[in-house]
Amino acid sequence: MSTQAMILMIFLFLLITVCVVFTIRKLLSGKEAQRKEYHNQRKNILVQNGIDVKKQMLGSGKGEYFSGNLREYDTNYVNGPIYSTWKISFQNLATGRIYQYRFRKQLQIGRVPVQNSDACLVLDGDSKVSKRHCIVYEGEGRLCLADQNSSNHTYVNGTRVKAPVFLNTGDVIKVGDTKLRAEFGK
């Protein structure tokens, strides 16, 4: 065998070896990525409007960064904590009527019922109450209240709610012309 033929065979052998090693590495890295993906499914992942809030990216290939406000009440936990069941009662201070509810994620307060809500307090007798006036939801293990851009605003103990606030049992919530005393627990 000539020297050129020997060099050609060695070159082909090295080329085939490199291709086989590259292919095996590619296959193994794919399995590793699947394992990491499965491992991440067990972590608490915050998602707001389809965006992974902790990574603050729209998607792995898009490269666009999350620019919205992180508000607990429209943020979902994927494979995350289970919400507590809350018992809440509202007493209308003008009429004495008591409204009692049980809910897990949120309770809507407004003039019309909301279909996709756990619970909904309908105050249809007050024309100053917006259709979707405010919501009560669980945040950091406590109950919070957030105004839903209502036309006549929401007040807690006489203070206008501009950003979500924590509720305390006994707080007075003013929705339209209706004043409600909130009592709650798990």
Percentage beta strand: 25-35%
* Averaged pLDDT: 77
Rg is 28 Å
Can you count the helices?
Answer: 1
Q: Note poorly predicted spans.
A: 37-43, 55-80
Q: Major sheet: order of its strands?
A: 5-4-14-13-10-11
What gross morphology would you assign? rod-shaped
Ends distance: 87 Å
SSE sequence, one letter per element: HEEEEEEEEEEEEEE
Class from helix and strand fractions: alpha+beta
InterPro entries: FHA_dom
Protein name: FHA domain-containing protein
Keywords: Membrane, Transmembrane, Transmembrane helix
Organism: Faecalicatena faecalis
Account of the 3D structure:
With 186 residues, the protein is an alpha+beta fold. 20% of the residues lie in helices and 33% in strands. The chain is rod-shaped. The chain starts with a helix and ends with a strand. About 18% of the residues have low confidence. This is FHA domain-containing protein.
